[in-house]
Specification:
By secondary structure, this protein is α/β, with parallel strands linked by helices. The chain is built from 13 helices and 9 strands. Helix 7 links the parallel strand 5 and strand 6. The protein is globular and about 50 Å long.
């Protein structure tokens, strides 16, 4: 039996799942009956850290299980009001800080060195990430406040419009080229993130916005939880041209475990085989190189293959990659080394 690999993961929605819990600290420490992440399952599967998303849900969003059989083209949710988004976002950030303060099992990290230190101490190393910038004002005052609180990664949009740009819809089949790019405020946001060493996540941005970031930003291009459009033609996935631009910038992509973004037919099915994930990883390595690929599970935010199930099932993916011929050095790169190297280059 191979030892469990430590995993640093590109995306999870644990904070959203814990937000309305009666006792989120106990649920996190002792385990919960639903979802994908808690301390017992993280330890069992080797989940040692990752990007913890602050995501404000849309009341009118069409969830994956509600999309029906492909083809599907659910409408983009309406924009969120600043005050509404800010209230929920601050609650989620406060929850992450509470988990750090009261459990000591998790550490909010602001650098690659802090991540390595936390992992060495057996803590879950958490990067504070915002998935959608609706809580940030056009003057960017809140961006600086959030940076001081620990924000080190930001997606300018989720899959809905904001004052900064336009999200890509959950269309299947579909192209990510779905509308206009960044607004003037969005361009200011990108430049400010560069100055503050905040990673810019491209995962939910449409293609025009992607190319605007590529033009403006001097940092590596990163999609924390996206897949290969050539293998699953979802509008949420990245074309080979986009992957090549990420490679040329020295950037990275984290493989999303959501079955609808993995499968060639775009269906949400738990019986999706691990071989489908292996094919995406092979393609990503071929386009991005060995240093450009990691994991971006979308735990607690997506319908994932039953063969993994939750954080405790991460070793199943590595076993599948071993059987496919991947060596241990490459497995370590995908498990955590590539993310830590990227974070060191972008965040510090």
């Amino acid at each position: 039996m191979k030892p469990t690999l430590p995993v640093f993961d590109g995306h999870n929605d644990l904070l959203l799942r814990l937000l309305d819990s009666d006792d989120p600290v106990t649920s996190f420490l002792q385990g919960r009956p639903d979802g994908h992440i808690d301390m017992p399952r993280a330890r069992a599967g080797g989940l040692a850290g990752g990007f913890f998303a602050v995501y404000v849900p849309s009341p009118d969003a069409v969830l994956p299980d509600e999309r029906g059989e492909p083809p599907y083209d659910p409408p983009l949710p309406a924009p969120l009001a600043l005050d509404t988004a800010r209230t929920t976002a601050l609650r989620m950030i406060a929850l992450l800080l509470q988990l750090e303060r009261e459990t000591r099992a998790l550490a909010v990290c602001r650098s690659a060195a802090a991540i390595r230190g936390a992992m060495g101490e057996g803590q879950i190393a958490a990067i504070l990430h915002m998935e959608g910038a609706e809580a940030i004002d056009a003057d960017l005052d809140m961006l600086h406040v959030l940076h001081a609180a620990g924000l080190r990664s930001l997606g300018p949009v989720w899959s809905r419009p904001t004052i900064f740009g336009h999200g890509v819809p959950f269309r299947f089949p579909g192209s990510p080229d779905t509308g206009p790019g960044l607004t003037e405020a969005g361009e200011r946001l990108v430049r400010a993130c560069n100055a503050l060493h905040i990673l810019i996540d491209l995962s939910h941005l449409n293609e025009a916005g992607f190319w605007d970031v590529a033009r403006i930003s001097h940092a590596p291009l990163v999609a924390t939880h996206s897949n290969v459009h050539a293998l699953s033609p979802s509008a949420r996935n990245l074309t080979d041209r986009q992957l090549d631009a990420i490679r040329d910038s020295g950037g990275m992509v984290g493989l999303n475990f959501a079955t609808a973004f993995l499968r060639p037919d775009g269906r949400t099915r738990g019986d999706t085989e691990l071989e489908v994930m292996v094919r995406h990883l092979d393609h990503l390595v071929a386009r991005l190189g060995e240093a450009g690929v990691g994991l971006g599970s979308d735990f607690d935010g997506a319908h994932i293959p039953d063969a993994i199930g939750d954080a405790a099932g991460l070793p199943a993916l590595f076993d599948a990659l071993r059987q496919h011929g991947w060596d241990e050095a490459m497995l370590r790169r995908v498990a955590h080394e590539n993310w830590l190297g990227l974070i060191e280059r972008v965040i510090g």
